[in-house]
Amino acid sequence: MTCHMTTRAERAQLAMMLEVCAFPKPGNVDRCHDFETTRLEHFLASTIYARPALEEAETGQGRIGEIIRHAVSATNCHAGGNTHFGAFILLIPLVYGGTIAGAIQAIEKTDVSDAVAFYRAFSETTVRMPARDELDVNDPKSLQVLRDRDMTLLDVMQHSARNDMIAREWVTGFPLTRRGADLLKTSGSGRGAIVQAFLALLASEPDTFIIKEHGVDVAQRVVVRAREVLDGKVPIETFDAECIGQGINPGSIADIMIAALYIALGEGWEWDF
Amino acid sequence: MTCHMTTRAERAQLAMMLEVCAFPKPGNVDRCHDFETTRLEHFLASTIYARPALEEAETGQGRIGEIIRHAVSATNCHAGGNTHFGAFILLIPLVYGGTIAGAIQAIEKTDVSDAVAFYRAFSETTVRMPARDELDVNDPKSLQVLRDRDMTLLDVMQHSARNDMIAREWVTGFPLTRRGADLLKTSGSGRGAIVQAFLALLASEPDTFIIKEHGVDVAQRVVVRAREVLDGKVPIETFDAECIGQGINPGSIADIMIAALYIALGEGWEWDF
């Protein structure tokens, strides 16, 4: 049974809620696992606090960069740190445009004001950038560089796409979001399908958040290990314990999973098995 | 860290979220335990879907009976059944009035239209009434009786107060809600305080939902057992397993706990330890 009156904002909130509740999700906060300072409740509080920004996006009015900043500000008011920055980068244009095609249209219309608002949002988070990036968010000169070059938010994502799979989704038309939604739809319904789709995404691309934290070799090993779980060679619980033990957190693929859940829910996928 | 801009509706949503995530909560759905057809995700989906009705209550406009009906309708659109009917009976006047004093004022102003709307909401749920109640919600004649006697919603609660501790909260000025909020504040912060306060409420009054399902003797035994847990004589995990094994679900005290969390959050209690 699915609510016929579900709004886009509610679907985005459901996506955030369903992603964090699914288990076991190797290395991530899930129903059965907290990080020391970021817990299930923080993710769910962010899900609640995000509503006004998601509703703002749903109107299809206003500027995407500014709406992302509103979402980040609204969800920064708990001690769990940044829970959904990457997810908002994907969700806000998707909710704004309604679909992937609509999101692509919307992000093509971003301008330098979106880029500046986004950098302001970024600087409110503790998310790391690659060392010595010429557009480092922690360097106040970056805003001037954005303005001097008249960079749009899409240009900023282009700049980051090589090292960041979330930015790459913007630049390449949300292919992993699309794949995640399709994986959900072919994996049945509910919690089990989320875990299946998450594993399949993990097995297909190295998570750039893991690359930033642990380097490319560790990220590649996670891809191989996820494939072994999918092939039934390794129990998922073993893989989960390995990731947790080594502090390996596939945070970017989790963000893409949220975007995939949003799309799948809009296409009739059933969370409520 | 608490968000300074948290609205009443958000506090009510946080209360619903925090209550269901706390564990172990003997006999109830919690982070570590689902019922067969009602799962953690259903409670959290209701938390999301309840937002418009809670915002309606926050305006302090409109009629309480109708707003309760809106909350029930909005959260009925998943397969988990009724998750928060009792909680809404308490939360809607509390959010409407802002405080317990404000809620008491608001419920004194209810009239027969609130009673009728409430009965309509009730009939959308699967909540049971005592056998052969002359105001049975499943009997279409009840609406006529309400109108003939010009009963207010407060009169309806008076009628139910002997057998229902949620109705009793309306009639007696929310004493258990108040006690629950005080227990939270004296039990520290976060998840542990919720479990402590829940146990203390369980140890103080028989849960009328348990009485309806299993009779007064079982409900009294739960009171004794909760006291033994508080006194360190029985591990909470044992008590939880007993409740789950016997299908004992202290659902009304869980509803009161949500109301208590709402009040405590408004008084500065910290969920975010």
Layout of SSEs?
The structure is a homodimer of 273-residue chains.
Chain A: H1 8-21, H2 40-49, H3 51-58, H4 64-74, H5 85-97, H6 100-108, H7 112-124, H8 141-149, H9 153-160, H10 165-172, H11 175-186, H12 190-202, H13 208-214, H14 216-230, H15 236-245, H16 251-266
Helix pairs in contact in A: 1-2, 1-3, 1-16, 3-4, 3-5, 4-5, 4-7, 5-6, 5-10, 5-16, 7-8, 7-9, 9-10, 11-12, 11-16, 12-14, 12-16, 13-14
The share of residues in helices of chain A is 55-70%
Overall body shape of chain A: globular
Total helical elements of chain A: 16
Q: Which stretches of chain A are low in confidence, meaning pLDDT under 50 for 5 or more residues running?
A: none
Distance between the termini of chain A: 8 Å
Radius of gyration of chain A: 18 Å
**What's the multimeric state?**
homodimer
Largest sheet of chain A: none
Largest interface: A-B, 31 and 31 residues
Strand runs of chain A, count: 0
Order of helices and strands of chain A: HHHHHHHHHHHHHHHH
Indicate the structural class of chain A: mainly alpha
Percentage of residues in strands of chain A: under 5%
Overall mean pLDDT of chain A: 93
Keywords:
mainly alpha; homodimer; about 270 residues
Q: Any overview of this molecule?
A:
- The structure is a homodimer of 273-residue chains.
- By secondary structure, the first copy, chain A, is an all-alpha fold.
- Chain A contains 16 helices and no strands.
- In chain A, α13 crosses α14.
- Chain A is globular.
- The model of chain A has no long low-confidence stretch (mean pLDDT 93).
- Chains A and B meet through α1 and α2 of A and α1 and α2 of B.
